[in-house]
Amino acid sequence: MKKRKKQWLRMCNGMMSGALVLLGFTSCDENSTGTGRCEYGTPYAKYEIKGKVMGEDRQVVSDARILVKNMVPQTDNSRTRVVSSDTVYTKENGEYLYQNTITGYQNFRVVCEDLTGAYEADSMDIKMNPTGGSGWYEGKDNKEVNFELKKKEK
Q1: What is the DSSP code string of the chain?
Q2: Closest to 58 (Cα-Cα) out of 140, 147, 143
Q3: How many CB atoms lie within 10 A of CB 94?
Q4: pLDDT, tens only, 14-60
Q5: Is there a smaller number of Cβ atoms within 10 Å at the N or the C end of the chain?
Q6: Does residue 72 have a pLDDT over 50?
Q7: How far apart are CA 99 and CA 48, in angstroms?
Q8: CA 23 to CA 88: how far, in whole Å?
Q9: How far is Cα 130 from Cα 139, in angstroms, rounded to an integer?
Q10: How far apart are CA 63 and CA 55, in angstroms?
Q11: What pTM does this model have?
């Protein structure tokens, strides 16, 4: 009786294992909806934001701090929150360049701050739309964001 029970359990286990193997292989085939194969990873894109910082008197602002903040909409879509930020500085000619490969973010707030304190800070919200990618690589996008800072009132 015990021997027969063991044989029955082995046969059931073998059939269930075989069914699971077949289900696993078929789930990763090209599916009928045309969305492609199962892949593991995260979508990513390459972004470039560049520009020039000038004062209202058309004077170049060097060593200004440029904060590039990755923004995500809140669940109620009326507000956004910052999830991360990067910093670059302007060169002697007032130009800056921000390049990064990021996963999942397309909304940015670019903030320009004059570290000398002569000019008021300014910011601009931009939306990146990467193109030219395939698979997990969504492509790339570049924007030019120039600032003309106003002098602080004393």
Answers
A1: -HHHHHHHHHHHHHHHHHHHHHHHHHHTSPPTTS------S--EEEEEEEEEEEETTS-B-TT-EEEEEEEEE-TTSS-EEEEEEEEEE--TTSEEEEEEEESS--EEEEEEE-TTSSB--EEEEEE---EEEETTEEEEEEEE--EEEPBPP-
A2: 147
A3: 19
A4: 888 888 777 775 555 554 445 555 556 788 899 999 999 999 989 99
A5: C
A6: yes
A7: 4
A8: 50
A9: 5
A10: 13
A11: 0.69
Structural tokens at position 107: 């909304």
Question: For 138, how many CA atoms within 13 A lie in the half-sphere containing its CB?
Answer: 17
Cα dihedral: 137, 46, 69, 154 (round 10): -160
**Are 119 and 59 within 8 A, CB to CB?**
no
Q: Which residues make beta-bridge pairs with 53? A: 147
Q: How far is CA 137 from CA 61, 88, 96, 105, in A?
A: 36, 25, 26, 13
